[in-house]
Write a structure and sequence with these properties.
Blueprint: H1 30-52, H2 59-70, H3 79-85, H4 91-112, H5 115-119, H6 123-150, H7 157-169, H8 173-182, H9 189-216, H10 222-252, H11 262-282, H12 286-296, H13 302-330, H14 338-366, H15 371-381, H16 386-397, H17 403-427, H18 430-434, E1 452-458, H19 464-474, E2 483-492, H20 500-508, H21 524-535, E3 539-547, H22 552-563, E4 567-571, E5 574-576, E6 582-584, H23 587-599, E7 603-608, E8 625-631, H24 635-647, E9 653-662, H25 664-667, H26 681-698, E10 704-711, H27 714-722, E11 729-733, H28 739-744, H29 754-760, E12 770-775, H30 783-788, H31 796-800
Parallel strand pairs: 1-2, 1-4, 2-3, 4-7, 8-9, 8-11, 9-10, 11-12
Antiparallel strand pairs: 5-6, 7-12
Length: about 800
């Protein structure tokens, strides 16, 4: 009877259904099913990433866990669910789309890897990379003998040895870069070393993987492996000679500031697919062709950025997570049963960690790296990720790894990456190591001839002319050591994986590390600052902070502490439109400013940029500015006036100081709204002493005019301030003290600017002058100052619309 039975194969899936009303089940058709799969995967992985955010885990952890949960290890135990959402006949379509997404993602990974940075890798980083590959590789081969004798009997020896060695020796370069950025370690020696060593490791891993694939596809003759490897090498050499000239020609035809022609982007993406086809035909997997082409694309100019912009969001957001599901569907943790299997899992994890960490620590100590930093480096180099999964999946598809070995290796990759962040946080605390005490935390100081250090922050090139002209004004009497400026470019590290490209851009010109070299490359920001440094007598150190906006304030404050600056100058979160009104540039920048004001280790100024000196640098001989300081009283006003006095040393600057005092006749009748010792006698005496000392110093300086105005009410105060609207720059305190200020306190569009600063940005106050709102450093800010930073901005939209 058995010989007469026929097996009915399920029909192939059609692409689209006629709809549920026609009696079709959408899940029986390829397109609706794959759309549902993508939606499910995207929602689950994003939800897991959100839940893991407090643990500061990279997104790849959430994606691996999401893939495992959707597979037979968790939800897939329910066969009804598994056959409905991931039926076997749909897996071909799922795997095809997942691998297509992976193909373009590996192109982006190659795009992030700068081959020239490998040439500049020092002996120390190279030695760490070699030790971090060779020792785990040898231990991986040793582990493979144990696995072959127990759960992997019958597999080919040579491919299995190489696959295990590669799997244990990989360091995931993109994942490591994300972790370093998240932990604020990119600017440390450990971060630099880890990135350099990981880049070398990444390239070596791909070469070893090519060897493993060549061996695993040997067929009947060992000569086939040799032929595959030689053809693969020939393809890489051909690409090295042919691709760069073509890509450079394309890049030259894409000038900065203009949109990249769509034909060049399309041609490059077609070339990626063609390269993938060639390497797949050779027998070393389509991913290699895409990766090699990505490495060879020139990193300068807008061309690389345009490729990332066109490809990344769709690929990494929607298609790449499918690869983790494809991997998760092959991962069945239930196959790890019994003491032997769990013992082997512990053995693999221990071998992976000991090989990587011990090898890295040993070489680091030989180079006299401090022990804590060496251990941190070891844990960082133990990071696994997407490349690890690619190795394991290729091994599974080639029959080198069985279900149980595959599940053990996936859990090993997950565990080693998961422990990296918490262990590094507990061991290495550069912020505490860098904490130092220093005296000059304010502009106001006893020795006015000592060097002034300022950290200026900017987010776009729009702010640079004003910043440079402000530095020119701040240099005082022009002594060589008189002023040192650290110019920090604030760059947001988003969830996009290719944000690591920013790290390469930064590294190319000495950023994000404090720029000690003169090699500024083509970066227009650094060029602008260096040109100013050569023309003036100001020492400039450009740098970059690459961080999520939610923690950007930490980078700013720690850099200020490390560099012992007296003032941080922050950009206001609004810019001036052509009609003169201010509109919001970035709303989240105002929260960065507020957090810096709360936690700064020195004085802080917020710069409201209305184009001080125009759109270009004004040379010292052409500077002709009038600066107005409005003095009501208090710490912040004294700091603003001290800064104004510093600027007045410049021969091209006139300083007008207006002191507002309340008319004694109305002082007794005024309602005291600010009772928190704002008008205390000791505060008045400090102001009197400061002004007396100031007047004594500048009495013979004709460029400084001091005027005292007796005021009856708030309107008269505003009228006096309006009379100075033709000056070039206002200098005001953030939280001035006194009864007059209480009357001005009714309008709070931007609490971080204080009452006078808010008046200067009001649409009713017509001026073309920039303004610097100053907060003096105090070890503990007063309660009213802290409370003002927590106020809601109820009128933000009202002013933006005007």
């Amino acid at each position: 009877m058995a010989s007469n039975t026929t097996v009915k194969c399920p029909p192939p899936m059609k692409a689209t259904s006629d709809g549920a009303f026609q009696g079709d089940n959408p899940l029986d058709y390829a397109l609706p099913l794959v759309m549902l799969q993508i939606c499910l995967v995207a929602v689950l992985t994003r939800a897991l990433a959100y839940l893991l955010r407090p643990l500061r885990q990279p997104r790849v952890i959430a994606e691996i866990i999401g893939g495992v949960l959707l597979g037979p290890s968790a939800l897939g135990r329910n066969k009804k669910y598994l056959h409905a959402l991931f039926p076997p006949r749909s897996l071909t379509v799922l795997d095809t789309i997942a691998n297509l997404g992976l193909l373009f993602f590996l192109f982006l990974v190659g795009l992030e890897l700068d081959p020239r940075s490998l040439k500049r890798t020092g002996k120390q980083a190279l030695s760490i990379a070699v030790a971090g590959i060779s020792l785990p590789f040898i231990l991986g081969i040793g582990t493979s003998f144990v696995l072959r004798a127990t759960i992997s009997e019958g597999v080919s020896r040579a491919p299995f040895l190489v696959f295990m060695g590669v799997a244990l020796s990989i360091t995931a370069f993109p994942v490591l870069a994300r972790i370093l950025a998240e932990l604020k370690l990119l600017t440390t020696d450990v971060g630099q070393m880890a990135m350099s060593a990981a880049a070398v490791n990444d390239v070596a891993a791909w070469i070893l993987l090519a060897l493993a694939i060549a061996l695993s596809g040997a067929g009947h003759s060992p000569l086939v492996s040799l032929w595959v490897f030689l053809c693969g090498s020939g393809f890489v050499i051909l690409c090295i000679f042919v691709a760069p000239p073509i890509f450079k020609w394309m890049a030259r035809r894409c000038p900065e500031g203009e949109p990249v022609d769509e034909i060049y982007v399309c041609a490059t993406l077609v070339a990626v697919l063609a390269a993938g086809f060639v390497t797949d035909s050779i027998g070393i997997h389509a991913l290699f062709g895409a990766f090699v082409l990505g490495v060879l694309v020139p990193k300068e100019g807008p061309f690389a950025g345009a490729l990332v912009e066109k490809v990344e969001d769709l690929v990494s957001g929607l298609f790449l997570p499918l690869y983790f599901v494809s991997s998760g569907l092959k991962t069945n943790v239930a196959t790890i049963q019994g003491a032997q299997s769990w013992g082997l899992l512990v053995l693999v994890i221990t071998t992976a960690c000991v090989g990587k960490i011990a090898g890295t620590i040993a070489v680091s100590l030989l180079f006299k790296v401090p022990f804590k930093e060496a251990v941190t480096l070891g844990f960082l180099m133990n990071t696994k990720g997407l490349v690890e999964l690619i190795v394991l999946n290729i091994g599974k598809d080639r029959g080198v790894l069985n279900d149980q070995t595959f599940a053990i290796m996936v859990l090993m990759a997950l565990f080693t990456t998961f422990i990296t962040t918490p262990l590094v946080i507990s061991i290495y605390k550069p912020a505490q190591m860098a904490r130092s005490e220093y005296k000059n935390r304010t502009i106001k100081r006893k020795d006015s001839s000592s060097q002034l250090r300022i950290l200026t922050c900017f987010q776009s090139t729009r702010n640079i002319p004003t910043l440079i002209n402000l530095m020119e004004a701040s240099r005082g009497i022009g002594k060589r050591e008189g002023l040192r400026v650290y110019a920090m470019h604030l760059m947001e590290l988003s969830e996009r994986s290719s944000a690591i490209l920013m790290v390469h851009k930064a590294r190319k010109n000495g950023m994000p590390f404090w720029n000690k070299s003169q090699d500024s490359g083509s970066n227009q920001i650094v060029v602008a600052f260096e040109a100013f440094q050569h023309l003036s007598q100001v020492s400039i150190r450009p740098t970059t902070a690459i961080s999520p906006m939610s923690s950007m304030h930490e980078d700013i404050c720690s850099s200020a502490q490390r560099k012992r600056v007296a003032m941080i100058i922050l950009p206001f979160h609004k810019h001036q439109r052509l009609d003169g009104h201010l509109e919001t540039t970035r709303a989240d920048l105002r929260y960065v400013n507020r957090r810096v004001l709360e936690r700064a280790p020195c004085s802080v100024g917020i710069l409201i940029d209305r184009g001080l000196g125009g759109t270009s640098h004004v040379s010292a001989s052409n500077v002709e500015y009038t600066i107005a300081v409005f003095f009501f009283g208090g710490h912040d006003d004294r700091e603003a006036l001290s800064y104004g006095a510093r600027m007045a040393e410049h021969p091209g600057i006139n300083l007008n100081i207006v002191r507002f005092t309340i008319d004694p006749k109305v002082a007794g009748e005024t309602v005291r709204l600010d009772i928190n010792d704002q008008d205390r006698p000791e505060a008045r005496s400090e102001d009197e002493e400061f002004l007396a000392e100031f007047n004594q110093k500048v009495s013979k300086d004709s460029s400084i005019k001091f005027e005292e105005r007796i005021i009856k009410d708030a309107q008269q105060t505003i009228d006096v301030m309006r009379s100075y609207n033709r000056c070039n720059l206002f200098l005001v305190g953030r939280m001035p003290e006194g009864q007059l200020v209480a009357a001005l306190n009714r309008r709070r569009e931007c609490p971080e600017l204080g009452p006078v600063g808010n008046l200067l940005i009001s649409p009713d106050f017509s001026t073309t002058a920039s303004a610097l709102v100053v907060q003096q450093y105090r070890s503990q800010l007063p309660l009213d100052s802290l409370n003002s930073l927590k106020e809601d901005d109820t009128t933000e939209g009202e002013y933006d619309s005007q």
